[in-house]
Design goal:
With 487 residues, the chain is α/β, with parallel strands linked by helices. It is built from 18 helices and ten strands. The chain has helices spanning 10-14, 57-74, 134-144, 198-204, 208-213, 227-239, 248-257, 261-283, 287-294, 298-301, 317-327, 332-335, 338-341, 375-380, 409-419, 435-442, 454-463, 466-478; strands at residues 3-7, 22-27, 42-43, 48-49, 75-85, 148-156, 173-180, 391-393, 425-428, 446-451. The longest helix is centred in the middle third of the chain and has 23 residues, at 261-283.
Length: 487
């Protein structure tokens, strides 16, 4: 694979790129007021100085958006952008850990824009000691620029450096914003799936119909299994907007939403269950006697003669046919219609469970509703594993070179895998120590790295040496399929 290293200013260098020439962008810009680098001054038109040391945060955000405008131009329509960004507190003074004699401007050699103190110490419209909400302000501005924000990924630094502060919690995470420029884009989720836990597999395979059959109702919020609560539970637990609008289940939910549920239930009870109750009374038989004559379970058919909301159930066609001559019943279809089936449970053998849960062709025919994982469940129960989600536990790693803002290869690996096709090109306009390029090289992608500091160009070249690449390759391979250390 090819690694193109450019020593220059990101904004000016990006203007030289062709339109839609890169597949993926992974980067982390200088945070506001936290770093001062050697020879990193840029002419922004309205101001000359280092990105991140602007006299006010509004200008800082403006400069970032000047860069993202160019990034949007050079990114393919199917491209992805992962943007790592942390916040800054109002206040602070020159000196401290943001300077390092070898790689950073020392406080005694302070460049002009920080002689008056850190820029965040001069903020007037945000109270001192407050977070400035710069990542959030940036994300909103990006959306206004036309980007689509798909995720706010949380990078939790498991081994974050302890803080000396005594009046707030230590900051242990940063944002990674996931942006795209089109509704359709490259995203290889299978490349970063993680193995499902057995508890998750068991939960996915849960079947509400089995719970009806086996009287396993402990999973239901309402132990008396009232009709309304069963349907509401089935909606929240199983449908989740996956039901076609024309299905019975869809109509059930519309009925609930429209306030028609109770009306339909009472109508069904009046037209069906009350009819059966009257016929049973006229026959002079008890439910127990009828159960013995039909070979059905008494506890099951008892629900067919109940007229209360919590206990009513529609009779099966098989039971109706058995009881037809005994109770002198009219035809089943005259009383049992689709509308009633959509609001009252029915245990009819062979009834289409797709009315509530999509039917699987390999379902158990002995009861018609004891089903293996449904089609939509199979989509969630992917053989390649689960979606790793937008929360990444990835520890930072020490390095022998002096760059305090190095993100780990195990953080970048899943982003490269999911956001850039094999053989594609990853761009990092703020390359720093070159982690994005290192990971791209290891994972078979081309990369373009822009870095304004000559010192860091030397670090990048050092890290791309074969013997050093192997060390990072081992770290990535040992960290798991999705690249994070705890998977």
């Amino acid at each position: 694979m090819t690694v193109q290293i450019i020593n220059g200013n990101a904004l000016e260098e990006l203007k030289k790129f062709q339109d839609e020439s890169v597949d993926c962008i992974i980067t982390s810009p200088p945070y506001y007021g936290l770093r001062a680098y050697k020879n990193a001054e840029t002419d922004w038109g309205d101001w000359q100085g280092q990105l991140g040391l602007e006299p006010n945060y509004q200008m800082y955000l403006k400069h970032l958006l000047m860069i993202t405008k160019e990034l949007k131009r050079v990114l393919k329509k199917t491209g992805t952008l992962f943007w790592n960004m942390a916040d800054t507190y109002v206040g602070g003074h020159i000196g401290g850990s943001i300077y390092n004699k070898e790689w950073y401007i020392s406080s005694t050699d302070a460049i002009p824009q920080i002689k008056q103190g850190r820029p965040q110490s001069r903020v007037k419209d945000i109270p001192e000691k407050s977070l400035m909400m710069l990542p959030e302000r940036f994300a909103i501005a990006m959306i206004e620029q036309g980007w689509i924000l798909r995720n706010k990924i949380i990078w939790r630094k498991v081994n974050a450096i302890p803080s000396s502060t005594k009046d707030r919690f230590t900051n242990k995470w940063e944002y990674i914003f996931f942006f795209v420029k089109s509704r359709k884009y490259y995203f290889d989720l299978d490349a970063v799936r993680v193995p499902l836990k057995q508890s998750s597999i068991k939960r996915i395979k849960q079947n509400v119909i089995d719970q009806f059959i086996d009287t396993k109702v402990s999973d239901f919020p309402d132990q008396n299994m009232s009709v309304k609560n069963i349907l509401l539970h089935m909606h929240s637990k199983y449908l989740k907007d996956r039901t076609p609008n024309g299905s019975l289940a869809g109509r059930v939910m519309r009925n609930i939403a429209d306030g028609k549920l109770e009306t339909f239930v009472r109508e069904a009870i009046t037209n069906v269950n009350q009819y059966l109750k009257d016929k049973l009374r006229a026959s002079g038989l008890t439910v127990k006697q009828l159960a013995e004559m039909t070979g059905e379970k008494e506890t099951m058919i008892a629900h067919y003669f109940r007229t209360d909301l919590s206990g009513a159930s529609l009779p099966t066609r098989e039971f109706w046919d058995k009881a037809k001559d005994i109770l002198k019943l009219e035809e089943y279809d005259k009383y049992i219609n689709e509308k009633y089936k959509s609001v009252l449970p029915s245990f009819d053998k062979g009834a289409n469970p797709g009315d509530v849960i999509p039917y699987h062709p390999k379902g158990d025919p002995t009861f018609g509703m004891r089903l293996p994982p449904q089609p939509w469940q199979e989509h969630a129960f992917n053989v390649n594993g689960a979606n790793p989600g937008d929360f990444m536990d990835v520890p930072t790693r020490p390095h022998s070179f002096a760059h305090f803002a190095v993100y780990p290869v195990t953080l970048i690996a899943p982003l490269v895998k999911v956001g850039c096709p094999p053989g594609g090109t990853v761009l990092d306009p703020f390359a720093g120590s070159g982690t994005t390029g290192v990971v791209a090289e290891i994972l078979g992608r081309n990369s373009i790295l822009i870095e304004i500091s000559t010192e860091y160009i030397n670090i990048i070249n050092w890290r791309l040496q074969p013997e050093n690449l192997e060390k990072d390759r081992d770290v990535i391979m040992k960290s798991g399929k999705n690249g994070s250390d705890d998977r």
